[in-house]
Amino acid sequence: MTDLKPADALKQHWTDALPRAWKPYAQLSRLDRPIGWQLLLLPCLMGIAVARTGYGFYWEDLRYALAFLLGAIAMRGAGCTYNDILDRDIDAKVERTRLRPLPSGAVTLKQAWTWLLAQCLFGLVALLMLPPLAQLVALIAIPLVALYPLMKRITWWPQAWLGIVFSWGALVGGAASTYLSGVVPLEAFALYAGCICWTIGYDTIYALQDREDDALVGVRSTARLFADKWRTWTTVFYVAALALWTAAASVGGAGLLVAAALALIAALLIYPMLARIDDARPETALAAFKANAIIGAAVLLAFALEPIWRTLRPVLGV
Description:
Layout: H1 23-28, H2 35-51, H3 60-86, H4 88-91, H5 101-104, H6 109-127, H7 132-140, H8 142-154, H9 158-166, H10 169-177, H11 186-207, H12 211-217, H13 222-226, H14 230-252, H15 255-275, H16 282-290, H17 292-316
Helix pairs in contact: 2-3, 2-10, 2-11, 2-17, 3-6, 3-8, 7-10, 8-9, 9-11, 10-11, 11-14, 11-16, 14-15, 15-17
């Protein structure tokens, strides 16, 4: 077993203190790369915020938020483990991924499958913390998640499929907050569509790091598809995300407030992030990709402003 880390792992992380035998499992789950579960969690929380527009937050939302946090960590880890199982031969040929636990031999295939099952069971605990409607919506995504690792072999748009599955939490969050009505609110679907466009944007940026290796092993991506036009197309998807998020806020009843906040996010966070990318320097693409956690948190805050105000207004006596 080796202590060498994959090239895309954080240089210092709390997982470094784990016993030697545990570290490969933490790497399988990408625990040393928290950006993944953060980007999975944010649409869930946005779904709650959008559904609570016009009503304010409730104490039960804390339980839902905790369930989404635990579920995001567990299921992102399970998804990465599953992806590594299917991609172990490809990962061995790519410089950035050849030191991952399976291609490096740090874990066996049987151990990886066992770890996958353990994470799914942990995710089940989180699922049971949600109301029935949200559970049903969440379960619908399972076959879509299972198909994701195959997409880069059969389509130039694996980033779009990732958007479909990674943004699903927007629908689950909306369903959790409005379960008594028995329907997912319309604004949650607009939010979901916006998050899909956002995911295509940031995952295209992430894929810029691997374009040469992907071409050699035959892996497809929007980064390769867009070629020299990647910046233009990525900008288009960010603009589409902002437009759809604004539509979600409008349907929910907080249009102008969220629209103004999203305009500031575009000017102060998204445009500078895109401008800093130099596709000849992979480290700039990775830094820009990671900046999307801040962008997503800002969007979440934009959606939460109105329900936060409604929650606090009685306390403040306004």
